[in-house]
Structure formats: structure tokens, C-alpha cells
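User: I'm curious whether this sequence folds into something compact or stays loose and floppy. Could you predict its structure so I can see for myself?
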Amino acid sequence: MAGNPYFIEGPALISFSGGRTSAYMLKQTLDAHGGTLPDDVHVCFANTGKEREETLRFVHECATRWGVRVRWLEFVTDLRRVGAAGRFEEVGYNSASRNGEPLSRLIERKQSLFSTLRGRWCTQHCKVGVMHDFMETLGFSSGDYQETIGFRADEYDRVYEMPRKALNEGRRFGFPLASAGVRKQDVLKYWTQQPFDLMLPRGTGNCDHCPFVSEKSRIARARVNPEGLDWWARHEAERRFSFGYMSVADLRDHVENNPVLPMSDVEDDAADSECGGWCGGRG
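Assistant: Here's the prediction. I'll summarize afterward.
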């Protein structure tokens, strides 16, 4: 369909982050193809095990309501000798990890924490890497297919920078939302008109306690979902290192001893961002 930015000629990989923006992109792409994607266009959701349950339900509901197959992928290892099929496993809504198991495997493999000081390689391996490995099992090398990513027109810095990073040389990207001029308010308006939505509370994000968001956002998430901090605290204690400039212990102490931060003051863009794009590593 000439001129329609959502019409994709395969082979292609559609990165579904589990946020409203990438879901909007997926629906527009489905509509551009008459409701059914070509056989060589694959929709992938990479689950780290620390996505919020609301995110998992939303991904499942999008797939069910729209009749599209979403491949749920999880990191196993980054060892090259095992081959692409041995580096990830395919799961589903019911069998998906919910206590950070893929990230725990990565930490054990690296004997280190991804962090604001040591790098954002959680994304590199548990998001971007598993999707590349999935495509490799289908016979496609990086650069053989288009990677369709949900960056909007108001995220043009990401659209500009991502293809120009040296580590992304050879990859082919598509940004249909940016090409269509879609902005954040367009996405939010769309979801107010739908019979279902991503039910994340304001101030939270798809990754329950991502250390790479602002300090305000980390504090707000700690207030909303304090039990989700347990996994992060355990790994910090085991490695004697912190994920962020504020440790989990610091976060808990701040929440306990300071007034509630109004959610209106919290940056919540990260709740709907494409993790594989705004983080470092291969993404």
C-alpha cells in the first residue's frame, strides 16, 4: 500500500514493548494489512520477568483481541556456542517469568549488576538480543530484515540517533509512527476511545523498578510498588553493589522518611518507552 507508513514489506520484526505507543503502532500496522500480517512479519515481546503484571495482561489482551500472534521471548544465555535457539526460550502469558528470572540468569552469567555505572546491558541481552536470536532461528541475520520500532514524531532525537550509532551499523530500522507524525497526545487520545487499556498507575513503568529513570520516578515507583523492590534488594545485597545512584536501601529509607511525592511531578514517559531504543547496548 504505497504511501502508508504502516504497510511493511517483510521480512520484518515488530518490537512490542508492552506500552501504549507500541501497541498503537501494532494496531495501525494490522489495519494497514487488512487485519493479518504477512507470514514473514513477526511481532515479538521480550519479557525480563520484571515487567509489571499490568503490562503482561495488556500484551496478552492486544494479541487476543486483535488476533495477532505475539512471540513471547525470554533470555537464557549469551553464549555463542549454544546457537541462537539455545540463547532464548519462547514462553506465553501463563508461563512467562514473573520474578525476574531472565535478568537473574544474566546477572549470574555476568557476575555483575547492570547499573548506572556499569552499563545498561539488561536491554542489550534481555530485550534486543533475544529478538535478534529469534530472527536468526528463522534464518535471518541482522540487516536482513527491518526492525520496526515505536518511536513517535515527538521522540525524533531517538529516531535520528538510533540508526547513526556505530553499534547499530548494518541494522535496518523502520519508525512508522514518526513517519506518520504521531505524537504522544495522539496515542493517549486513541486509548481513551478503546474498550481496554494498559492499566498501569501513573508514575509506574513497564519495568517495575528500572534504575535508569529519574530519581523522582524511582521514588514514586517505590511508593506505588514497594514489594517489587525485594528482587532488586536481594541482588544488591548479593553483589554488594547498587543498580542506581540510589540503592534500594536508600530508596526505602527515603520513602519512609519523606512526604509523598505528588504523581503530577513525576516523569512518566519511561512507562511507555521502547526500552531497546533509549537504553544502551545493542539497542
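Summary: Residues 12-200+269-278 form a domain with the Rossmann fold fold (CATH 3.40.50.620). The first helix runs from residue 20 to 32.
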